[in-house]
Amino acid sequence: MKKYAKAAARWAAPAVILLQVVLVWSEVLSVGQAVVVGVTLEVLLLGVVLAEIALARRTYRVSRAEGADGQQAVDEALRAVLPGPVAKAVGMELGLLRSMWTWLRRRRDIAPGQEPLSYGSQIRPVMWVMICLTPLEILAIELLLPWAAVRITLLVLALYGTVWVLGFLGALSSRPHVVGNGVLTLRFVHFVSVSVPLRGEVSVQEVRHSGYKKAVNIKDGILAMPIGDSTNVAVTLSAPVPVRPKPGAPEQEVSEIRFSADDPGAALTLLQGCSLQVPSEGRTSE
């Protein structure tokens, strides 16, 4: 019953709004009745919204207390009060703005006791080229399209695209991989965050693997989070550990972690500083 109650709460606000629209367009009520019903629904909607705000705030605080970073806590709070697809879409947009704001303030989404591992240097130039081409895109729209409505629409899309790319760049800098407190957390901007507990003896190698097609790949006990289609650091665990590839997904056993770092040598040094055993020689695998 608790599960169904939570699901109903997520759909309560959209359902009330939809009911208001249906009543207005169907004309099944008189003007007086419509006013009474409308006011009642508005009060109901306000109550639902206030309850959801309280639930979201409580969920956010609990997530942060359990060690989640800011973006993970926001995602958990949204999933507590919104339907799954809506929560994901809203979380991505909020994450975009949050990452850009954090980046502009020269901060990073790192908890006490964690050390950062940067990634994404190979895709940053492409992002900057896209931003630099935006003025040319806007100029072309103004010169080539005679329809004002189309020009305004494309201008808004171009500006939004620029904000999106800036948020993406901000997330690359403000949300690095992090190591600390016995956990390696791998990220891909504000879209993905996977935490792996480091237990027992662990070996680390600078080694290239390629051919990956997804942001998160788990197969045969190997977790890979590439940039592009490749990784350049491999961490081998002495025993499998449970990993949840995404919120709500079942846990899977992982014994090797592969990821991409801007400076693999620095990544090995940092992991070695966390009392991990690092082999003296690496290997290359394509």
From TrEMBL:
Identification of the protein by name: Integral membrane protein
Origin species: Streptomyces mutomycini
Taxonomic path: Bacteria, Bacillati, Actinomycetota, Actinomycetes, Kitasatosporales
Record keywords: Membrane, Transmembrane, Transmembrane helix
Transmembrane feature ranges: 7-25, 31-55, 126-148, 154-172
